[in-house]
Structure formats: C-alpha cells, structure tokens
C-alpha cells in the first residue's frame, strides 16, 4: 500500500513538474552579411541547413562550406540585378550590377 502511494505521488509530481526544454522555434539566422542592394535586390540569405554534412543552405540548395554558399548567394543577387537591368529597370545597368558583385566579400577571397 505504501509503495502504491509513493509511486502515485512521484508520478503526479513528475507530470506536474515544469518542463525546462526550450521551445522549438523554427528560426534561421542569415549568415550573409553583405548589405549592398542595387534596385532593392538583396543577397539571397545563407542559412544553417540543419544537415551536419552540408550545413549551409541558399534557397534550398545545400553546401559543405560557407564560401560556396556565399558565392551562390552572390551569384543569385547578381543574376537578379542583371535580369532587372535587362528587363527595363532604368535605375540599373548590368555594369553597375557587376561593380556591386566585385564588392561582395567572397569575391575578394576566391
């Protein structure tokens, strides 16, 4: 009888105890620090993919190192900028997009 009461008490305390687990918040930090944005076109975010073998992600594509992910982000920004310039945005030129691409930090590393 005492064992039953003790077990019931322990069980009720365990269930009633507050949980110290962190909430599962699905947020991703942008690892891309380049802020240039001709025509309002920003660099594609570089995020943690959650995959330890390919930890960096750009628009769903994963990469084994940060340099490759940053290069993809840079290329995507350049392409979007050039497409806007070629599509008639008079505030942009492909040359200006190229100049911005050369300012991209990864462009100086590779």
From TrEMBL:
Assigned keywords, A-Z: Signal
Signal peptide location: 1-16
Name listed for the protein in its UniProt record: Uncharacterized protein
Organism field: Clohesyomyces aquaticus
